[in-house]
Amino acid sequence: MILRLNEHPQEAVAVLDSSGDSLKYGELLAFSEELAGLLPHRSLLFFLTENNAGGVAWGIGSINAGHVPLLLNAHIEDGLFQNLFDIYRPPYLCVPSSLAAKWQYEVVTERYGYTLLRTGQPVCALYEELSHLLPTSGSTGSPKLVRHKYENIEAAALNISTFFELTAKERPLLVLPLYYTMGLSVVFSHLYVGATVLITGLSMTDKAFWNFMKEQRATSFTGVPYSFEILNLMRFFRMDLPDLTLLTQGGGKMPRPLNLKFAEYCRDHGKRWIATYGQSEGTARMAYLPPEFAISKCGSIGRAVPNAELSLVDSDGKVIDTPNTEGEMCYRGKNVTLGYARQREDLMLGDERHGFMHTGDLAYRDEDGCYYIVGRMGRFLKLFGMRIGLDECEQIIKAKYPIECACVGTDAKMTVYITDPQFAVLVKERLVDKTKLVASAFEVKVVDAIPKNEAGKVLYSKLTV
């Protein structure tokens, strides 16, 4: 039994979506038992989910039943889906019933707006602790999957519910996708305390979205930087939202001016602003900045979540003890996942990380023990003999000009993509001034939009150098 589902009042509502569909804790538990008997023991299934009550029912229900779902976007591109299907050959496929006719497979059952199909693929052996799978990239169709175990779910739920101080009275508004690690973590942590998750697939620019949020008295909102950019454009700061007491951000570094704007808004309106850091490999949240530091340490990811530990190592793998010294950030905790899968046979692999992982992020720690991300390992160029951080250059540009940008390149030249042609010359001059390199080291290209995935992260692979 995961997330203490059997300990909560069974008549309490676990999930309510913007279409009006709901799911009680007792119904979720009963559906888990139904799924346990409906499929062969420990079955692999591809679950194409939307953000609704049925998505939670099938996602959590299948995991609780002992099956292993790969959570995917219900509207994934056909080519990307087929690539994953050919590699992993799942015996079962669960899709929204409205899309079921697309696949010519045998129907097993239809429940909560989803249809379970039998694909005819043979069963496969699965590692006994494997709980579910998440893609590392929803946009490239990479076969590389993150392998989670049951202990990761419990640890993440406990950690997150502890530092957010969650209770059964919470009513979080979930707009992030269920197939995205942070969206799923919202479900884990709130079901763990017996709360009611308000879930929607509505656009944040849709009036119905705001009606749902207000009518259902949402108490918290979790978003990625792009989510808060939209809120800023939607005149969020003028809205009357007395029930909303917690705003949380993750999914990448947020522009400092916007971060500060939300932090100050929360301070002035009696709400909490908590910035977090995490990766799918760490079952979402791995660090958080306590709300009392939201302004004084704006831009910091804070400290490790409860029951976990952050550290820094140098290029030789030695632990860095001194403050304000850059190194690769490492993480230790029970929410560290098993490792990756790249082919069907890898689903039998055991724990390759044993609770410890290198994050791939460069960071430093201040005198108070708060961490600051500097950039990604490998997101560096050596231009004219100088080591230049691509992430740092993006921050230099965004701090000066109100534009989107993305930096890529080789050791011969940095290419800067922006969306507003009037800043092209200014951006190059800014980088020349800050890096002290010659202008020929930089090329500025203007595009209609910076390519991003569903979570708002820049898709650097789609930008040519």
How is this fold's topology laid out?
Blueprint: E1 13-17, E2 22-24, H1 25-38, E3 44-49, H2 53-64, E4 68-73, H3 78-88, E5 92-96, E6 106-111, E7 114-118, E8 130-135, E9 145-149, H4 150-163, E10 172-174, H5 181-192, E11 197-199, H6 207-215, E12 220-223, H7 225-233, E13 246-249, H8 256-268, E14 272-279, E15 284-288, E16 303-304, E17 309-313, E18 327-332, E19 339-341, E20 356-365, E21 371-376, E22 380-383, E23 386-389, H9 390-400, E24 405-409, E25 414-418, H10 424-435, E26 442-446
Parallel strand pairs: 1-11, 3-4, 3-5, 10-11, 10-12, 12-13, 13-14, 25-26
Antiparallel strand pairs: 1-2, 5-7, 6-7, 8-9, 9-19, 14-15, 15-16, 17-18, 18-20, 20-21, 22-23, 24-25
Account of the protein in words:
This protein is α/β, with parallel strands linked by helices. It folds into two domains: 5-374, Rossmann fold, CATH 3.40.50.12780; 378-462, 2-Layer Sandwich (GMP Synthetase, Chain A, domain 3), CATH 3.30.300. The protein has helices spanning 25-38, 53-64, 78-88, 150-163, 181-192, 207-215, 225-233, 256-268, 390-400, 424-435, and strands at 13-17, 22-24, 44-49, 68-73, 92-96, 106-111, 114-118, 130-135, 145-149, 172-174, 197-199, 220-223, 246-249, 272-279, 284-288, 303-304, 309-313, 327-332, 339-341, 356-365, 371-376, 380-383, 386-389, 405-409, 414-418, 442-446. The strands form six sheets. A nine-stranded mixed β-sheet has the order 2-1-11-10-12-13-14-15-16. The chain has a five-stranded mixed β-sheet with strand order 4-3-5-7-6, covered by helices on one side. Helix 10 links the parallel strand 25 and strand 26 (442-446). The longest helix is centred in the first third of the chain and has 14 residues, at 25-38. The relative contact order is 0.10.
